[in-house]
Amino acid sequence: MLEPGTFATYQLHVSLIGISPMIWRRLMVSEDSTIEDLHYILQIALGWSDDHLNRFIIHGKDYGVSHPGGIWFSDDPSDVRLADLPLREREKFLYEYDFSDRWCHQIRVEAIALSDHPLPAPVCLAGKRAAPPEDCGGPEAFDNTTP
């Protein structure tokens, strides 16, 4: 538990699994970011269109933003904040987007920084390579030699 007036910011390294050379982003997100927020942050950072089903697997539990006709999650993604999850530095979890193409993202908590003020908005600090186009068939079909 943080002391009052102290805010945590998570530095996350997001990489697509099965792609070489690596496609990745380094993000800074607030402890108050929800699962729903993180889903949309990833959609924007990677240039995805949010047209497909998704889920996070954190500590063996599925979380996600439901879509009509898709899977249902036991927790409301707008209620579960990163601060509610006992995430530690160097810990990894998964984000899967598009269950047909199976875009699996490894998310690693690189650092948890404490500050006396909250992060006003998520920030993409760095990254390499554009994400593959939607519906291109997944990692096996994507041309991994594209710079």
Q: Helix count, per DSSP?
A: 1
> What is the terminal separation in angstroms?
43 Å
Number of E-state strands: 7
What is the averaged pLDDT score?
91
Radius of gyration: 15 Å
Beta strand %: 25-35%
Major sheet size, sense and barrel closure: 7 strands, antiparallel
Counting copies of identical and different chains, the oligomeric state is single chain
Structural class of the secondary structure composition?
Answer: mainly beta
How would you sum up this structure in a few lines?
This protein is mainly β and about 150 residues long. The protein has one helix and seven strands, in the order ββαβββββ. The mean pLDDT is about 90.
Overview of the structural elements:
- The protein is mainly beta and 147 residues long.
- It contains 1 helix and 7 strands, in the order E-E-H-E-E-E-E-E.
- A 7-stranded antiparallel β-sheet has the order 4-3-5-6-1-2-7, with helices on one face.
- A hairpin with a 5-residue loop joins strand 5 (92-97) and strand 6 (103-115).
- The chain is globular and about 50 Å long.
- The protein starts with 6 loop residues before the first strand and ends in a 19-residue tail after the last strand.
